[in-house]
């Protein structure tokens, strides 16, 4: 369901599709005990989501040649702590879990988000959209994308996932203005300062009833490392 065109060539990804009802704890039960402990007090559905997404992450790392067995733990605000030399992103939603990873020699940060391809609940768009983003949502709807508001939400989430590992700072919905294009590309213009990059590029697609958005910050291209 995920396609290589969403990601830089050096990245590797893995995904799992599950039923929308019930859950399977096999992947969770096969995780390192330290990974299991991160959600040990959660309900079983949450454990299943977590286990599937972490399994995808380990599979993607193996495809990049990583042979270690280190657990992928959590840092600030739930940020995955990847093995040294790698960066990546995780996502999970009803019926779908995925991960993408890349070597930090080529990619500074990645973001990945997936949601069901359906409109947002009433009132949510006004909470996440800047005034300049409303016209493009209307344009996308007129172009036959009724879930354009959900696409914007995914783009903001994927932007945040790429932003936070670089800065360890919160990024509100109103702190990035996103230009979503009908050709499957997008640009997130960051409105906060200081910032290591002025914008974050991404790609989007819709497959099997899901909106998928991936963002990438390539190493050494127009960014400055910041100390916090």
UniProtKB/TrEMBL annotation:
Q: Does the keyword Transferase apply?
A: yes
- The UniProt entry's coiled-coil ranges are none
Q: InterPro entries, alphabetically? A: 4-PPantetheinyl_Trfase_dom, 4-PPantetheinyl_Trfase_dom_sf, 4PPT_N, Enbac_synth_compD-like
Q: Which domain of life is it from?
A: Bacteria
UniProt keyword list: Transferase
List the Pfam families: 4PPT_N, ACPS
Residue stretches making up the 4'-phosphopantetheinyl transferase N-terminal domain: 35-102
* Occurrences of domain 4'-phosphopantetheinyl transferase (ranges): 109-199
Protein's name according to its UniProt entry = 4'-phosphopantetheinyl transferase
Organismal lineage: Bacteria, Bacillati, Actinomycetota, Actinomycetes, Mycobacteriales
């Amino acid at each position: 369901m995920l396609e290589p065109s969403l990601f830089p060539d050096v990245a590797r990804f893995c995904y799992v599709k599950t039923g929308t009802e019930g859950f399977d704890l096999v992947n969770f039960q096969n995780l390192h005990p330290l990974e299991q402990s991160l959600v040990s007090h959660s309900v079983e559905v949450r454990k299943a989501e977590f286990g599937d997404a972490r399994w995808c992450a380990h599979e993607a790392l193996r495809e990049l040649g990583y042979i270690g067995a280190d657990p992928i733990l959590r840092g600030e605000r739930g940020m995955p702590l990847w093995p040294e030399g790698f960066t990546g992103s995780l996502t999970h939603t009803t019926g779908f879990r995925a991960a993408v990873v890349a070597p930090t020699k080529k990619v500074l940060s990645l973001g990945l988000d997936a949601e069901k391809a359906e409109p947002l609940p009433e009132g949510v768009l006004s909470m996440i959209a800047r005034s300049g983003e409303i016209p493009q949502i209307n344009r996308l709807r007129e172009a036959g994308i009724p879930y354009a508001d959900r696409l914007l939400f995914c783009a903001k989430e994927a932007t945040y996932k790429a932003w936070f590992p670089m800065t360890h700072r919160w990024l509100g919905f109103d702190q990035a203005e996103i230009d979503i294009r009908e050709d499957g590309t997008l640009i997130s213009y960051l409105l906060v300062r200081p910032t290591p990059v002025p914008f974050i590029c991404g790609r989007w697609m819709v497959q099997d009833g899901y909106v998928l958005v991936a963002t990438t910050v390539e190493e050494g291209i127009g960014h400055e490392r910041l100390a916090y």
